[in-house]
Design a protein that fits this description.
The protein is mainly α and about 240 residues long. The protein has one domain (about 1-185). The protein contains seven helices and three strands, in the order ββαβαααααα.
């Protein structure tokens, strides 16, 4: 299924959406892009993963870089799940969470800077969505109290940095484990080899221009389960 997307304002690269950011006076951008492993052709996926060419996700229009990054994180996560790569999927979720937390922290700092110049209800709404603002009034008739409230916001936002540090530490531990294993760079030759083996198993040519990523994953799982079943039978003899 192809997704038609609309985007308002600017955002940094993140792995998930963030609600109600402060709006800029920009016109909406319309575009179409592949949004899941169910509609992305395998050959385009291979170019994304091997050549870091995320433009392969674009169907039409000019897509903001952060949208391409977010969509790729989603698609690659689906691919890892489909290929039963639980460790890789968990690491990808950690990266997405880290990016999301960092974006939220950066946006709160921008909101505070904006509010030091002039009050902004969208900025207050964004802040209150992501950190506790209980007891803060943001009363501009009491400028000293208003500025103190902004200092409290800056202080409370530091907890986001602690969460980021924790997630980064968890990721580094996982990355350390994966380095001890089979950590190889994926190339187009790697996929060509897999496709050739799957074609033998399926008894027909697996055309990477005709297969979606999801269909490729399903065929791979079927072949893997078949091979494991044969191995169990042979081990009992």
């Amino acid at each position: 299924m192809k997704q038609r997307s609309r985007y308002f304002g600017k955002r940094a690269n993140t792995g998930s959406s963030v609600s109600n950011p402060p709006q800029n006076a920009e016109y909406p951008i319309s575009y179409e892009l592949y949004n899941s492993t169910s509609d992305l052709p395998l050959y385009k996926f291979i170019k994304c993963i091997c050549n870091n060419d995320l433009s392969q996700l674009v169907i039409s229009g000019k897509v903001p870089d952060h949208v391409l990054s977010e969509t790729w994180v989603k698609i690659y996560g689906e691919y890892l799940e489909g290929m039963k790569d639980k460790m890789g999927a968990h690491k990808l979720r950690l990266v997405s969470h880290i990016n999301d937390l960092q974006f939220t922290y950066d946006m709160i700092q921008l909101c505070v800077k904006r509010m030091k110049i002039a009050p902004s209800q969208p900025a207050i709404d964004f802040i209150s969505t992501h950190i506790m603002v209980f007891g803060l009034k943001f009363n501009t008739e009491d400028m000293q109290g208003y500025m103190n409230d902004l200092k409290v916001v800056e202080g409370r936002s530091q907890t986001l940095l602690l969460h980021i540090a924790e997630k980064k530490q968890e990721y580094e531990l996982l990355e350390g484990k994966s380095v001890d294993g089979d950590n190889v760079q994926i190339t187009e030759k790697h996929f060509d080899s897999m496709i050739a083996q799957l074609s033998i198993y399926a008894k027909f040519h697996v055309d990477k221009r005709q297969f979606t990523v999801n269909e490729f994953c399903e065929l791979y799982k079927s072949a893997t389960e078949h091979a494991e079943a044969i191995e169990k039978i042979n081990s009992k003899r």
